[in-house]
Specification:
By secondary structure, this protein is of the alpha/beta class. It is built from 15 helices and 20 strands. The chain has 2 domains: 159 residues, Leucine Aminopeptidase, subunit E, domain 1 (3-Layer(aba) Sandwich), CATH 3.40.220; 312 residues, Aminopeptidase. The chain is elongated and about 80 Å long.
Length: 498
């Protein structure tokens, strides 16, 4: 994909389509106003007659607009001028791309970047635009047979800028948006694949393929025998009931010399039956998404590698299946973690924390600048925050605020949640150092407290993405979150933001 910027007027630019916006009360956006002048009031007339809607997310494609060089004009609604923000902006871009999808459009100019989007800079306008386009054009058709719909042959995508001094910022935004969109698409693909394809071994192959030919990125994969020698009894207790071998995937990207790395740990349960503590049947098919933490950190690594960021990043993925069988771990069993701490497994469906704790202990060897684990960890998090925000917990206030701010900037929002001894007390066990579940209250937080027992001395944060990693219903599929949030953290840390 070629990205460009231009100060040319919307009416003068040769393109297959120009995207312009209109507001409530017949107010025209910057690009629309120029086209309206060149067409001698064509857009104003359509807007006043109701043939064009100003409602957010509505779009109409016009052809043959007089005085305009572009073959098509995509007119999108922006709602009230005073309410214009980045969320509406991304919705408008998505509406235009959706309306154009299926056409033979090759070159698009987006003039919505000229709108006063809540003080958003040219960098973020271009970046959000490219991310919204990537999200809209994403299709998962790998497992479908028969003739597949051809994608729009888009090869060139541009952004209007008010002055030439904004060109570098917008160009960087488009470049970063492209890298993030690629990472999000990979995370979606991994989540959407069925569990009989996307196994722990498959995840390992994807990670190795990402590193192939990249001089800054390496991947190694530890097998069960190697994990046993390391003392990862907690992780291996989860995979005891399945014939599918567990993998510990370790990716290392070196873009900043000897700097301490940021370590991202992703839960990779490629299918979660709950084990002996078997889940109910309805919607169990969605437990193929229980590896979306792994998908998110691998997708983030893909974004980092695409953008060639000057930072060191490591990814650690404990990848397993959780299945019931005669060899499966039973409720009441006690296992020994890599840290030496013992765990009474009261519920085998609280398995994510059992693999993450050993992965967190393993990650100590990297002496991380910060460590962030990402997991579809608890249904309690969905009850608390729904499907809108990712839960953020941390033993470091500055790190928690850093991630929260990154989520806001990236339009991939989170919400801070507490940790504390009053919650951790629920994890007491009569027979081991701790139990793997607490009481019925504060389940998302007690899960975070469990992981916190393995992070002493490290700046650590935990992201519970149980509500945000995928969508159910008619739009069922992986969301690709929190790739934008995590990538924003890394962009800010390495000084790559303008």
């Amino acid at each position: 994909m070629e990205y460009f910027t231009t100060t040319s007027k919307a009416s003068k630019r040769a393109a297959d389509c120009v995207i312009v916006g209109v507001y409530a009360r017949n107010k025209l956006g910057a690009g629309a106003a120029d086209i309206d002048t060149s067409s001698k009031g064509h857009l104003s007339a359509l807007l006043k007659s109701g043939d064009i809607s100003s409602a957010p997310g509505r779009c109409r494609i016009l052809t043959g607009v007089p005085g305009v060089r572009a073959r098509r004009v995509a007119v999108v609604g922006l709602g009230k001028f005073s309410k214009m923000n980045s969320t509406i902006y991304k919705k408008a871009v998505a509406a235009a791309i959706t309306a154009l999808d299926g056409s033979k459009t090759k070159k698009i100019l987006n003039t919505l970047t000229l709108e006063p989007v809540d003080g958003t800079s040219p960098y973020y306008l271009a970046r959000h635009s490219v991310e919204a386009m990537g999200d809209t054009l994403y299709r998962f058709t790998e497992m479908k047979s028969g003739r597949k719909k051809k994608p729009m042959p888009l090869s060139s995508y541009g952004h209007s800028i008010a002055k030439r001094g904004d060109a570098a910022k917008a160009a960087r935004g488009a470049q970063h948006g492209d890298g993030i969109a690629k990472g999000v698409s990979l995370a979606k693909d991994l989540g959407n694949l069925p569990a009989n394809v996307c196994t722990p071994s498959y995840l390992a192959r994807v990670a190795k393929k990402l590193a192939a030919g990249n001089g800054k990125l390496t991947t190694k994969v530890l097998n069960e025998a190697e994990m046993k020698r390391l003392g990862m009894g907690s992780l291996l207790s989860v995979t005891a009931g399945t014939a599918e071998p567990a993998k510990l995937i370790v990716m290392q990207y070196k873009g900043a010399g000897s700097d301490k790395p940021v370590v991202l740990v992703g839960k990779g349960v490629t299918f979660d039956t709950g084990g002996i503590s078997l889940k109910p049947g309805p919607a169990m098919d969605e437990m193929k998404f229980d590896m979306c933490g792994a998908a998110g950190v691998i997708g983030t690594m893909a974004a980092v590698a695409t953008m060639k960021l000057p930072i060191n990043v490591n990814v650690v993925v404990p990848a397993v299946e959780n299945m019931p069988s005669s060899t499966a771990t039973k409720p009441g069993d006690i296992v020994k973690s890599m840290s030496g701490q013992t765990i009474e497994v009261l519920n085998t469906d609280a398995e994510g924390r059992l693999i993450l704790c050993d992965a967190l202990t393993y990650s100590r060897r990297f002496k991380p600048a910060a460590i962030i684990d990402v997991a579809t960890l608890t249904g309690a998090c969905v009850v608390a925050l729904g499907a809108h925000r990712t839960a953020i917990m941390s033993n470091n206030d500055a790190l928690r605020e850093e991630i929260f701010a990154a989520g806001d900037a990236a339009e991939d929002r989170g919400w801070p949640m507490p940790l504390g001894d009053e919650y951790a007390a629920q994890l007491k066990s009569n027979f081991a150092d701790m139990a793997n579940i607490g009481g019925p209250g504060g389940g998302a937080v007690t899960a975070g407290c469990f992981l916190g027992k393995f992070t002493d001395g490290m700046d650590w944060a935990h992201l519970d993405i149980a509500g945000t990693a995928w969508k159910s219903g008619a739009r069922k599929g992986g969301s690709g979150r929190p790739v934008p949030m995590l990538t924003q953290v890394l962009l800010a840390r390495c000084g790559a933001l303008p």
